[in-house]
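Let us practice reading a record.
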Amino acid sequence: MPDPAAHAGGTGPAAVDERQVYRVLVDVLAVPEQVDALLALLGTAVCGLPDDHDGACRLAWRMAATGPGRDLPVLPEVERGVRAALSALETWPPAAATADLLAEVAGQHRHTDRAGET
């Protein structure tokens, strides 16, 4: 089993964890199914493996989504600002965007499932 201290930027018990906390914020104008797919994609990209798995993650991370139907709502003043900024952007038709996100999630799962194959 790898030495956890080695992941903290050192090789022994006295090693100092040199990692710093960063927050990556992504605002999206989407439907719930698109948000769920996006969360799966981001989780796999950060972790290195899809969903729940045995073993270590690529990075230490946590993720949450706010908005309708989520544990935390988006504050009305924040929603107005984000909607105003994002509504002006050209996007794919919703059905095409959803289908592409779901295909990407399925593709990532196939790719990581085959990672050990030669």
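A brief commentary: The chain has four helices and no strands.
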